[in-house]
């Protein structure tokens, strides 16, 4: 019982630590969606039990591939050469991340070495020291949908407390990206207004110049 309590406390502390660093990244990076997503993955895997984190974006083309938008961690090579899909008819879309994106629900892998649904990736996960994972759905309104996926070197690392932390982080990621998109729209509108004002000023100056010339004549 004592060991179990210590394990729960340590997983909660790791999650809170990752959340705190990721929150700083969210507040610091406001200019680029790509930089923000990469900073989040770096924050999650920085000196923690989480050995790999990545963010995938669902594509609607043939095969419904998952595009890697950002990734970081000591086990970053895990995805190299993998066919990533969220298609229901594709065997590669039956893993936790594919199901997460397809259904919009969080998926928890308690142990990669015993889970029956993780059979196709079990040996590869063992090579990179992956034992458990959580996949959090991300949906950016009017833009894209995908998932934040975090892997741990420990089995059953994603219990109630850590999962709640990562769910909150997923919500903040969505808000952060929406803020970047909103800022981009506002900047574009501001530039448009400045250009319109310049055109009006130039037109007015030309009209006044023509009037002065006419009066002089």
Task: Map the helices and strands.
Blueprint (H helix, E strand, L loop, with lengths): L1 H27 L4 H13 L4 E9 L7 E7 L23 H8 L3 E3 L12 H6 L4 E8 L5 E8 L7 H57 L1
Antiparallel strand pairs: 1-2, 1-5, 3-4, 4-5
Helix pairs in contact: 1-2, 1-5, 2-5
What does the model show?
With 217 residues, the chain is of the alpha+beta class. Helix content is 51%, strand content 16%. The chain contains five helices and five strands. A hairpin with a 5-residue loop joins strand 4 (132-139) and strand 5. Helix 1 (2-28) runs antiparallel to helix 2 (33-45) and helix 1 (2-28) runs parallel beside helix 5. The mean pLDDT is 84.
Short description:
The protein has 217 residues and is of the alpha+beta class. Helices cover 51% and strands 16% of the residues. It contains 5 helices and 5 strands.
Gyration radius (Cα, Å) is 24 Å
**Amino- and carboxy-terminal Cα gap:** 101 Å
User: What is the makeup of the main sheet?
Assistant: 5 strands, antiparallel
- Helical residue percent? 40-55%
| Uncertain stretches | none
Structural class, from secondary structure content? alpha+beta
The shape is elongated
Assembly state: single chain
Number of strands: 5
Instruction: Compute the average pLDDT.
Output: 84
> Which series of helices and strands comes N to C?
HHEEHEHEEH
């Amino acid at each position: 019982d004592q060991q179990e309590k210590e394990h729960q406390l340590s997983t909660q502390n790791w999650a809170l630590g990752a959340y705190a660093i990721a929150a700083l990244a969210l507040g610091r990076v406001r200019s680029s969606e790509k930089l923000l997503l990469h900073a989040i993955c770096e924050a999650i895997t920085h000196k923690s039990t989480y050995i790999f984190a990545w963010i995938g974006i669902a594509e609607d083309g043939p095969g419904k591939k998952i595009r890697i938008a950002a990734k970081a961690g000591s086990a970053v090579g895990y995805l190299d050469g993998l066919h990533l899909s969220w298609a229901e008819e594709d065997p590669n879309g039956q893993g936790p991340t594919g199901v997460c994106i397809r259904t919009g629900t969080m998926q928890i892998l308690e142990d990669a070495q015993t889970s029956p649904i993780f059979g196709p990736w079990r040996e590869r996960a063992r090579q990179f020291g992956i034992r458990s994972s959580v996949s959090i759905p991300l949906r950016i309104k009017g833009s894209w949908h995908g998932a934040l996926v975090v892997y741990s070197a420990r089995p059953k690392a994603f219990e109630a407390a850590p999962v709640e932390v990562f769910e909150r982080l997923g919500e903040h990621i969505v808000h952060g990206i929406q803020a970047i998109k909103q800022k981009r729209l506002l900047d574009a509108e501001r530039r448009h207004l400045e250009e319109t004002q310049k055109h009006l000023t130039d037109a007015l100056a030309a009209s006044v110049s023509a009037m002065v010339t006419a009066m002089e004549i």
